[in-house]
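Q: Sequence in, structure out?
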Amino acid sequence: MSIQSPTLNKTLLSSLVISITLLGCSTTQTQTPNPSDPWSGWNHGTQTFNDNLDKAVLKPLAQGYQWIAPEFVNEGVTNFFSNINDVGVTINDLLQFKVAQSGMDGSRFLINTTAGLAGFVDVANMIDLPKHKEDFGQTLGYWGVPSGNYLVLPFFGPSSPRDTVGLIGDALFNPVTYVSIFGGPVVNAATAGARVLDVTDQRAHLMTTEKIVDEGSVDRYDFIMNSYKQNRDYLIHDGKSSDESDPDLNDDSSYNNTNASPATGKKAVTGNTGSTPAGNKASGKSLKLSEPK
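A: Exactly. Output:
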């Protein structure tokens, strides 16, 4: 009862097993841990793993995809997976009591699924129904669940204990999960192929952002970590600055202040180039460079 190997559930399960097994060992190996990043030993090693995976597999695959796919195909694939994502967005809207926004996002899905040819054309955007970014990690933050320490997951990249639970919730809100559960081998193969296409499409969109991370940051790890935290804070508070922000998502005290990223309100680079996340390209989204769901 899981999406097959290339897809979210099995990959997420493997990532969590690896993280839980090795996290304790990695933290004890750090002699002078950063109080704001106590899992830095694990995180650095996992980021290196994700980066190497990206260089060997995902980036070449994305470059080939960019070379082969015409622009209208690229845009259509992006719209298709964004449309599927709107189902989870609408559910999270309701869980956060954003009733008006849930109506807009639900309408987006219905309009794009019908008039937009199964979502390949973003008709909703043409009639001023903008794309929103809501996920289950944000919903947990809305209800006061603390973020916890910064955590880099294998394959998925930057996260936190709260957002790791959020990934599981988002999988349950994704219609593709249930297509895989109740489908036969042919359907499972098709959904696996769709997931690979989704990951490849998203990785292709991060080529420019990757250059910003590699060339514009003094310390790549700190840049990614601070960008991720700031962007999650931005999303959870809907872009509103607050002195009562989640303390786990604020800047890192005296550590790494010179490396803080002005990510608020923009697509912050928040992941390793180890893989890419599935289906969220809205404004304000943290760009995970690692996440093959």
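The first strand starts at residue 151 and ends at 153.
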